[in-house]
Amino acid sequence: MTASVDTALRGPEAFSLSRRVIDEMETAGVWPTPLNFELWLHYLGDPEGALGREIRRILDAQEPFTEGTADMLAAEYLPRGRLTEEIRDAGRVLDRELHSISEAIAKAHRSQTAYGQTLDKASARMDGVEGGEQLQTIVTGLTAATRKIQRENESLEKRLEVSTREVARLREHLEQVRRDALTDALTNLANRKAFDEQLTAACEAADAEGEALTLAVLDIDHFKRFNDNWGHQTGDQVLRYVASVIGRVAGAPRMAARFGGEEFAMIFPRERVDQVKTALEAIRREIASRSLRRRSTNDDLGVVTISAGFAIRRPDESPTLLLERADTALYASKRAGRNRISSAEDLQQAA
User: Fold this and answer.
1) 128: buried, middle or exposed (CB in 10 Å: 19+, 13-18, 0-12)?
2) Which terminal residue of the chain, N or C, has fewer Cβ atoms less than 10 Å from its own Cβ?
3) Which of 38, 97, 262, 271 is catalytic?
4) Could you confirm whether 24 is annotated as catalytic?
């Protein structure tokens, strides 16, 4: 889902947009299946986008909007559809290469078997050889058979070399597809799926190694009001700016992700509490230190601030409970006036 549509669905106009989608689909005679609904959300949420223009062309041409049409549009324009198609293409290429390798190996096996039979026959014939002419005939046949098997082995080597390069290229492509599937398109940070996987892995590693693990949740203050005043495109600009600051601080082994909407999360493996506080303070101060301007008009947008909360993982604590405690700390920062950082441990001591 594009960033503008995703943002719209998390704002005050989400319900009116959804109702308008149903009304428009009914007017066009399109069944409200989950896939059609998602396509229409993109169409009405971003009518000038590539998908919006294509749906409008189909409607203007009065072409029937069938399940096949929906599948085609999803494969071409929706990120998940494109990802599925890329995986299918990769699967077809891999299947072709494996079939080619299998055939080449089977052919080499047949050739080796035939060559072995030739040697057995030559050995049997040599037992009864009486003259040089017969021996020369046998040796000539063995030489020809040897050259043939050498040529076929060279052909097999070349075929395997080509297939190895193709499989390596395919592996690299699939790795890029995997990275794309785990990256938020708007901010280029990890997405929620990548975050969930990494948090689970980090908790398991912390248990195995007996190391510390801290989770922080960050949220842009008053982002809804900002979106209402300046529009979603400018809101996207702010999200990218905040993400860039977080990303610079979140070098390995830390991990930063867009958690959803205007919320971000950071994982701090094997770091002391003071290191975590220093990193979060650096992010908070840098974001609050700049007055932003709208790119299209150069309007002064004012200062954007963030609030954050973090929690130190307890032994054997689940990712869900750790996230809940970090969220509680975040909302404590919001209630205390925003533009600040709170610790779940400090809140517990105060209670």
Assistant:
1) exposed
2) C
3) 262
4) no
